[in-house]
Amino acid sequence: MPANRPTLDERLEMHRRMLVTRRIEERLGEMHKAGQTRGPIHRCDGQEAVGVGATAALEQRDYVTTTHRGHAVYIGKGLDPRRVVAEIFGRETGYGAGRAGHMLVADASRGMIGGNAIVGGSIPAATGMALSIQILREERVAMAVFGDGAAQTGICHESMNMAGLWKLPVIFLLEHNEYGLTVHHTAQSAVPELHVRAAGYGMPGVQVDGNDAVAVFQAVADARARALRGEGPTLIEARTYRVEGFSTSDMGGYQRQEDIDRWKARDPLLVSRAVLGEEADAARIAAVEKDAEETVAAAFEAALSDPLPEFAPHAPSAPYANAGGGC
Amino acid sequence: MAIMRYAEALNAALREEMERDPTVFVFGEDIATYGGVFKVTAGLAEAFGDRVRDTPISEQALTAMAVTAAMTGTKPVLEIMYADFMPLTLDALINQASIYNYIWDGQVTMPFVLRTQGGGGVGTGAQHAKSLDSLVAHIPGIKVVAPVTPADAKGLLLAAIRDPHPVVVLEHKLLYNTRGEVPDDQGPVEIGRARTVHEGSDVSIFATSRMVLEAEKAADALAGDGISAEVIDLRTLRPLDLGAITASVAKTNHAVVVNEDWGFCGYAAELSATIMDHAFDDLDAPVERVAALDMPIPYSQPLEEVVIPNADRIAAAARRALA
Questions:
Q1: pTM, entire model
Q2: How far is the CA of B124 from the CAs of A107, B303, B308, in angstroms?
């Protein structure tokens, strides 16, 4: 069995985390409709295999930075669902004590730093982390999760060029969900297959089925091993599809129903369960699924009763120095 | 006590701090092999290997990379060759560097230094002569320092590198070859403290960067008219030393503010409003503002000389304040 093949236990855990993410997304969708959320929420349901599969191939010490659509990455990197939900509801117990919101969650102790709501922002972010790793000669990698929309930004080119040039230990995970905002990728990119761009940066470019968590895991594990060997970055294009709108405020109407239906037939949870069913007995799978359901129910119950934060000034932002206080 | 050029003082700060702290690294365009276009980083690559890196011409990504490198265990010092290129760095400063310590509830700090240089005076034209002080000083969470003397160049850069939060160091192209005394044991200069260049009793002139030198010339000219001007070098644009400003205004009852950035929505406007907010009762006249004229910086010498503030304009402003 190759080293990059996840064990049965690892696949059961990936299945559990994908289901945790799915239930969080569904619950947020319901609560948005009921007027119980603040701001737009960017759901990632249907794309869980990318964020969960990729982070499962990393160690806790590895750094990850993701997009504004990052819930699967947060849960995949092992963040506490209660604290993620608490942050989304602006609670004191959230990862940013309610200052960050759902697009910018971070848990530095787990290398999750963090979500990024500027499209393309995660690409130089992980590249900079990889530069730090290289300067300090550490045994870890950085991973940028970004979308096909972000792949069209100028900073993507700058970052990948430097990563290839300096052989930085970074994994560029391109989560291709076919939409940048509400516009289809065929109206945004001169090439339909974005992994081909890796050739221009002296790094390998691979494409995987983004709805198959095991395939994503294997590609990331290979890229991680390559980075640790000092051979530099890898661009992984994980093909998936955004079954929900851009955000909860998106009125829709521009996606073809036949595309949605086709992708829903290959839902990451269906793919995962079908593969698991060949090796794990039904009772084990059921136990994992029950745990996920209970985890999310408990997370929402606790988070929604957690306290709201109280305002305090932020000294490093203050415009006037405290004389003698070192500011 | 050694006499050093401003550029040499900056170099000494980088060298000392890189020797003292192995997590400090320096990167930017032309900075390693060539030693920097103003020779601030000369000789560092030979001494520190891959901790001193020439980069591609990629200001936008470099600044964003410095932000996250600084959150993950290193202390990056990034050189942006001209302040005019700072618009390329603004996403990283405004949307990344300035927010993370706050929104992540102190989980991360960011010892990141961005060095750049601005200002006119040598015919570098509209894309290489601007002062964009207000652009960076506007952002909560970013500190901005602007040393004038070689001693402060060394001391403020040392302080910037050791600061756990992002600091922009604004140098000036006409200062690199100026000389001054730098104490052998010159350590960090506290960020957020103004420096009284010389005391006076009739009017306070608050100046930044090279304008401090023009303010000193203006003070000499005013002295010839029997006017005693106090010149204060603000040194730190953010956080501002409010105590030093209000104390000086309380003494002279007249204020002139001088900054080389543009006037409209500029740093001098902020200073002026700050004095009005905090020292209005001590003022005997409105605050006088001196700044660059609101237009692109022209190339030809007689045109540029009109646009950039100078000692004559500062002295005239002081006379208006006292009129």
A1: 0.97
A2: 46, 12, 13
